[in-house]
Amino acid sequence: MGRQPILDRVKKIVGYELLFRDSEENRFPMHMPQDVSTAKLLINSFLNMDFDEVVNGKTALINFPIEMLRNKVSTLLPNKRIVIEILESVEPNEETKDLLRELHRKGYRIALDDFIYSPEWDDILRYVSIIKIDIQATPLDTIPHVLEKLKSQKVKILAEKVETYEEYQECRKSGFHYFQGYFFSKPEMISGNEAEISNSLIMQIYREATRNVINFDRISKLFEQESTLTYQMLKLVNTRRQSNKKPEIKSVKQALVYLGEQHVRRYVCLLAIGKLGKNKPAELVKMALTRSRFFEQIATLTPYKREREEVFLMGLLSNLDALLDKEMSTVMDSLPVNDAVKDALVSKSGRYYPFLAIICAIERAEWDKFEHYCSKINIDSQTAMTFYKNVLRAERKDLLIAA
Asked: Helices then strands (H, E): number in the chain?
């Protein structure tokens, strides 16, 4: 990963922006979805490495795409140590306002990246601490006008992409509070070892984390199978303990209980996105998670209600061939799943296949096929569609990984 210092008006370093890098080339990997890169950055900086050493005891600015704001992954991290940087692609709408208000209420500082002023932001800026302005994209002679618009807001203004002494001086005269750019320092590469954790284990942990009530005995045994996961989870516990009354953690189970169901689910979501989504479109990961929840929910109204876990797992595995770049038959040969799951995923046949056919029909808008396969498992098609919409709505409301 890379880090680039942020300086105040007397050139004192006040923090670092952390930037994901997957090689020594010191540039963002364009093939990687933003939520995957953020997940890997968080795992590396907070769980694989010593965060205090990464930022020299300062504050870290970290980019969060809208999906990670929705699923509250940022709340895993200590609010005094990070600034949540909102990407320029985020629209100034009611959803954004609600998300930022909630983060602000919990004590998190917010930065808006590559900010371009419009009146739509006025009602949202009360929750923002820092506004970043790309001075290469914003003519310097227009900046005083922008700063005048922001004067009534209690925000600090950061000039990014400052590349020359003249630009620094001009920004300083204009009233900027913070500065970042190649004039001060290029992003510095920081190396850390990323441990390999099996996809199979991640999926087992995900399954346990998405139950209505987490069984801490079962899930702790899964964490204990991989020392790296145990180490990361203990590091996470340490970042959450901000008071002087720090309980001594004597077991993996105790650590998980200390985190609580909500944070365990968010941590597992982070693992799933960072691990299963490596080098893959984020939509593939989201599709697998959506399918698994949908299958489990509609199963409750079918003759398969006692097999909810099996069809849930089938949904989670349903595009593993695309995620792993392997034939589905090869993937299934290496996994201890029952024949009904294998038949559905490999040969498109068997008792569970109607579930897969239903979701594929919805995704492709093949409504005759949708009606046909709903009848195969004795579920009303309108009811099935309602379940599907509820799953999508839950994702938008941060219930993607909650039951």
From this structure: 19, 9
